Amino acid sequence: MKVLISGATGSIGKELTVALCKAGHTVAIIVRDYHKAKSIYSTANYTRSIVIISIGKSNWDEELAAFSPEVVIHLASLLTSRDDMNIIPSLIESNITFGAQLLQALKLTNFKLFINTGTFAEYAFGGGELNPSYLYSASKTAFHSIIRYYQELSDFKVFNVIPYTVYGQADSQSKIIDIIYKSFFEKQPTSMSGGMQILDFVHIDDVVAFYCMLVDKCATSKENWNDFHLGTGAGNTLREVSKLMADKLGLTENINWGVLPYRARDTMHAVAPIAKMANQFGWSPVIDLKTGIEKYLLKSIHH
Known about the structure:
Layout: E1 2-6, H1 11-22, E2 26-31, H2 34-40, E3 51-54, H3 60-67, E4 71-74, H4 88-106, E5 113-117, H5 135-154, E6 157-163, E7 165-167, H6 176-183, E8 190-191, E9 198-199, E10 201-203, H7 204-216, E11 225-230, E12 236-237, H8 238-249, E13 255-256, E14 269-270, H9 275-281, H10 289-302
Parallel strand pairs: 1-2, 1-4, 2-3, 4-5, 5-6, 6-11, 7-10, 8-13, 9-14
Antiparallel strand pairs: 9-12
């Protein structure tokens, strides 16, 4: 299968790109920073044949058309908790403008499937009704209309994947689980909110496996649009995660819970409704939180 990936230099994208190459797919990545992408994918034998399309080039749309993907995985996004005046142009450019330009360029191809990546924060009160919690997630929701417009023009299928709290990947931007882990080794206690948010922690290995499965199953779906909430179906509070990590490390918690206020519209309960993945594809995650924490700690300690 010929697969095009945006966001391939991000934390999920790097692992997914390698996994698809290992699985024998022909992969192209569309990136902003050509040299960064080249440095990431220049060492492994199975990634040397990756086609790198840089949007810094004036003819990137022609290069995309020449590659002619069958499946497109759209991971590229600006993830931020900011909602100030200065961040708005960057959010719109990254989460709406670039996606629209990508879909416009794809009109020159005969691609069959667009796998979009959303966020659980688009669903402030659960997995049913769209109600974005933050400006970031609102920009992701707004992009749905752009996709549907181009879908009417080009007649492709859409798998809209909504990952929940992904962990276990190497990331330049610390996630909540990284902050908890690092707190054990700080001299002073880490100040956090009350820690009663119930989140669905899904390991990066399961996330990558699900995307790879969707590529393999691209021809099986009869619906033009499918939403898949990607998690484990189980929720844990941040305090429970910290306690589990403390037990595994044999260390005492080093967090001052409740010092910081919850953010306005903070997501307090986000557990993925996963029945659709099982019903449609017979797929379910294999890494529970206890096993995932063990894998996370083993990886962190060795790095």
